[in-house]
Request: fold
Amino acid sequence: MNSLSKPRNWEKYFWPVLAAALLFAIWHYCVVWTGTNIFPSPLDVEKGMAELLHKGVLWDDIEDSVRRVAVGFGAAAVTGIPLGLTLGLYPAANQMVNPVLQILRPISPIAWIPIAIILFGVGDRAAVFLIFLGAFFPIVLACVSGVSSVPSIFQRTGRNFGLSSTQLLARVVFPAALPQILIGLRIALGIAWVVVVAAEMIAVESGLGYLVIDSRNSGKRYDLVIAAMLLIGVIGLILDLGFRSLEGLPSVRWGFRHES
Amino acid sequence: MRLKLHVQPRPLLFIGVLLICWQIAINRHPGQLLPGPLSVLRAIGDLMHSGLLLKYIVASLFRVTWGFALGASLGIPLGLAIGWNRRAEMALNPLIQIFRPISPLAWIPVAILWFGVGDMAAVFLIFVGCFFPLLLTAMSAVHNIPALYIDAGRNFGLSPFAFVSRVLYPAVAPQLVVGMRITLGIAWLVVVAAEMIAVNSGLGFLIVDARNAGNRYDLVVAGMVIIGAIGLLLDLGMRSLERVKSFRWSYSED
Amino acid sequence: MSLTNAANTPAVAAMKLRAEQLCVAFERDSKSVSVLEDITFDISDGEFICIVGRSGCGKSTLLNVLAGFLAPTSGSVIIDGEPVHGPDPRRILVFQEHGVFPWLTVEGNIGFGLSKLPRAEREHRVAHYVQMIGLQGFERTYPSDLSGGMKQRLQVARALAVNPDILYLDEAFGALDSITRLAMRKELLRIWQTERRTIIFVTHDIDEAVQLADRVVVLSSNPARIEDILTIDIRRPRNISSPHYLELRDKLLEQIGQAYTV
Reply:
């Protein structure tokens, strides 16, 4: 972008490593200088991570969190995509339903926790319900806007070739809206990952969110808190990268502006 | 797409039908914990009457305003600078990518440790929730400036200050406004969650307190309705900003 | 005398399309604005017709009516003796903008209208048209990796593959650079001469009309009426610097209201 000379190959590794090393050094010396014995240094966190791995509970927690996200997000996609496509295709229906969606959408999924607990009790299903709520609205809205921004020439071409309305949906509207739908799904997955951690901090007693809050409450083990946070970050990043790789598929690549 | 402000009969009718169905369902199953729309309405009335509603709304908005303002005033300039400098981006991008997906709520223990239970902790959580999305928006906004504009700006020999104010800023503004609207939505999600755990006032606290202190589910749902309505108003406010003329153009048609 | 090129067609060609007193009016601010008024013409089978007029005069509206995408306010379009009630795969409209489907490969685009055919037949047809438009080696390429001219040839091939009687082209080459446009005209004429479809081509480019058409329909503006129907009686391949070519071109320019000096 700017006119500085083109970075050389070695810089690709040098700068990130330097930045990470600096961050760890600053962190470490802040802990040392302030003399805190609650907040952990990077080394403590590394020991905490090792301890979690050693005890074997970590994998169960990761599995619980990922499973909840998979089920809640999957349910939101399975219901949200058809609803969004329908609303996008029939503006009259959208005009009726859209205000309801707009009112429900800004209600934090976390605010549904009391309702989720009445409906499903404390447990997996309550957490899955919250994740579903968090992912559902972005998916529906992405589908509606994806469908309504399909250029009319594509639809006219489809009709010109004699497609029925279901064929038009499957062969023209859906593929044309797919890039936007994928963006919506990726955003929804990010939200699902935020919600699962929050839900686990309040509504269930397992998973990475529970690990964070439990490590604090039972004995102020801040080394474990930070270790769990880093894990949440890394897994979230992996989920996002996995989804991003879908955007490179040939039949949707045209819909994304490529950043170098 | 957008919610029009002028009154349309059909959506209102649809909402009315939904509310009536809800009330009928509640009437047919008495003894449920879930409240009907009438008792929710009554609860909102009670809350307004006691003055608690206004107090909690102000508390929540206060936290969102500070957290968002701090996140924007640090995240946007930093993002622009990192986006502009390739080496800085190479260095910091991996770290940013790891911090970004950490739920702001996972910071709660750290927030409480550093700031204690109170407003500062909540503001910090909202700040964390706003900082990373705005940082990334600003970075990608810089990337998306067409090279043409930059070359044109250089061609006219603008001073660095004039370059920033007359080329860089107007070129990134439309994307920043969209990013700020989305981020404000995130801030509103975070404040509610933060108030459920880390503080003793605000709309999130209203919900959790109403449930814990005597299963007042009418107050729970009343709190949710207020949260939805304010979230919607914040979104509409930011959208009207998007319609300001100098922000309205975008690169989409190239 | 035949209206089509005497060298290539029988003296009396069957009538293909008739536009009868077409009128189109739109409601704008609760006032009726007339766009097309009393458009009547006949087109023979296998004829190449260009429709010209100033930009915004209603050329594209007329084409959309002929193709069945827009119902006329009054009047009718009759093709092969039957009135037109909607779009039909026997008549394909080719757009100016990027009308190729970006999510399908070259093969996928050409085969788009052929899903009812058995597989072997479909593959055969696709291969035939890939060759006709000279995109061999690009079968698996997506449109985002093709040039503008290639995309427009692809759109024409997609239309031809379903074997339509009539091809409507709406400013189809308008977005291409002038050299590519010249090549595309040659290509279109070659395809027309081998496949003998009726072609109705809307353009604002007078040279394009004189180079391609058997007859040129000239529309006036606000509302569009037929100003003239001009027969281009030059043998193909046409010499575009012959006095007769220039004479016809100047006549068209004059009818559109443009002097022929810059």
Remarks:
- The mean pLDDT of chain B is 85.
